[in-house]
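Hmm, what's this shape?
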Amino acid sequence: MTEHTTDHTPEHQADRGTAQEPRAVAPQEGTRYVVSRTVGADPSAVFALLADPARHHETEPTDWVRGPLEADPAPLTEVGQVFGIEMFHKNANGRYDMHNRVIALEPGRTIAWLPGQYGPDGTWGSGGWSWRYDLAPEGEGTRVTLTYDWGEVPAPLREEFGLPPFPPSFLEQSLAALEKAVTSATAG
């Protein structure tokens, strides 16, 4: 059985529940969600999935993330690397492109990025929100902690975009999708 916890303390101390009884988390200081789940795969397998832009849609509980912009995207291997993802959301007038800049990367342990876009002059910019995955061995699996942080987003943009654009349960569903993707890949 996979244990599922939702963490809402700055130190990431667990507020434990079970997969059958997930608990929602309130935003930390009003600017982030943190959710954890133990998945049945080793950290290197989880990291390999997260470091492959061609597979990011597999960690998405909806069809918001569509796929990579490149036919054969390079794996994520260093901080500063930018990877393009096709996105779709009705509130964003349908299809759009995101160019995510890697801001933390330690193989088998951590990967994080800032979603952004290139302007007409070719300059990359970000609205300030980030996605971060921290991995730790736990028993026969990996404890995956997913953090969505919008603390660096200026107040006018928070209001314009309606941040956060989803409840904490979206992150719980993302981790369930990640678990399904990584365990089906390792079972095959």
In short: The first strand starts at residue 3 and ends at 6. The chain has three helices and eleven strands. The CA atoms of residues 53 and 73 lie 6 Å apart. Residues 168-187 form the longest helix (20 residues).
